[in-house]
Amino acid sequence: MLQQQDASGILGRTTDRAAPPTTRRRKGPVLTASILAALLGVAIYIGIRQRAEAEASLAVVTTQDAVPFVEVVHPLHNATDQELVLPGQTMAFTDTPIYARTNGYLKRWYFDIGTHVRQGQLLAQIETPELDAQLRQARADLQTAQANSRLAGITAQRTATLLKSQSVSTQERDNAAGAYNADEAIVASRQADVSRLEELQSYENVYAPFDGEITARNTDVGDLINAGAGTPTTELFHMTATKTLRIFVAVPEIDSPAMQPGATPTITFDEYPGQVFHGRLARSSGAINLASRTLLVEVDVDNADGKLLPGAYAFVHFTLPGRTQSVTVPANALLFRSEGLRVGVVRNGKAELMPITIGRDYGDRVEVLSGLGPSDQVILNPSDSLTGGASVRVADSKPDGTA
C-alpha cells in the first residue's frame, strides 16, 4: 500500500512537472495569430490609404483633364504689303468707227482688215456725181454774182463822180451804192456755198485719222454710201490704235484709297504663262459705283511690239501697302457668333472672347484692324462651345504666328 501511494505520489509529481511545456506549445499559435492579424491590419490600412491616395490623385488628374488644351499663336504685327489681283479686259487706246460724210457710191478701197495704216493714208474713194453737179452749179452762180458785183461797183463809182458836178441826185448815188453792197453780199453767199460743196467733195476721199490697224471693213466697191442725217448709216471701216492698251478694272471700295495715279501694277495673261507685263495706273473715275461699290480705274500698258490684243482677258496685280496699326491672324482662329465676329484669347489661364474688326482677307489669314495686339495669345481652331471665362491650358505657343 505504501509503495502504491509512493508511486502515485511520484506519478503525480511527475505529471505536475510536465505541464509547462504543454502550456508553451499552446501559446505559440496564439502569438503567431496575433502577429498575422497585426500584419493583416497593417496591410489593410496601407491598402485603404493607397486607395484613398489613388482616388485623390485620380480626382486631381480628372480635374486637370477636364481643362481643355488649346493651341495658340501670336498675331503678326504690321501687315506687310499685299497683292490684290483683279480681272480686267484690254481695250485699244483709241477705237473709232469711220463713216462717210458724203453720199455716193464706193469707187475703191485700199486696205483690208489687219492692215496697219499711218495717219493721213487714203483708205477709200467715193463717187459723188450729184455733189459734183451741185458744185459746178454753185461755181457758175458765184461767177454770175461776181459779174453783177463788178458792174454795180462801176455804177456806184460813176454815180459818185457825177454827183460832184450835180449831174445826178444824191438819191441816185445812194441807190447805186446800195446795189453794189447787195451784190457783194450775194457774192459772199455764193462763195460760202461753193466752199461748203468743195468741203463735201473732199470727203470723197476717206483718210486714216490716226496710226492704227483696220479691224473691220464693212463696205465694198459699188456699195451705196448714205451719209444723210436721220437715215441708217453703216461704218465703212473700224480702226484701233493699239500701241498703248487700256485696261479698266473695278477695285473694291475698301482698297480704293491705295489706287493713286502713277502706281505701277503688273499684268499677266493666260495666253502668256510665266510672262509679266508692266503697266501704269493712269486715272480713276473718282467716284464709287453705287451698284457694285467699286472704283473704276484705268491701267495703261505699253504694246509697241503689238504682242497684246484688244479684248483680251487680263489679271492686274496691285501692291497694297500694309496698315501700320493692324495685325494678321490665321483664318481658322475666327469665331462667328450671333453678336458678331470674335476671337478666343488666353489670359491668366482663362479664355476670353474678344470682338474684332477685320480688314483685308488674304485667304489663309485675315487682317485685324482693332481688338488684338501682337502680345495676345490667340486660340487656333476654337471649339464652337468655347465660352468666355472657361479654363484652358496652352498646348503650344508659336511666336511666328503660323498655324
Explain how this protein is built.
- The protein is an alpha+beta fold.
- It has 4 domains: 66 residues; 85 residues, conserved putative lor/sdh protein from methanococcus maripaludis s2 fold; 116 residues, Helix hairpin bin (Helix Hairpins), CATH 1.10.287; 80 residues, Efflux pump adaptor protein, beta barrel domain (Elongation Factor Tu (Ef-tu), domain 3, Beta Barrel).
- Helix content is 33%, strand content 36%.
- The chain contains 3 helices and 22 strands.
- Strands 1, 16, 17, 18, 21 and 22 form a 6-stranded mixed beta sheet that branches. The chain has a 6-stranded antiparallel beta barrel with strand order 3-10-13-12-11-14.
- Helix 2 runs antiparallel to helix 3.
- The longest helix is centred in the N-terminal third of the chain and has 65 residues.
- It is rod-shaped and about 190 Å long.
- The N terminus and C terminus are likely disordered.
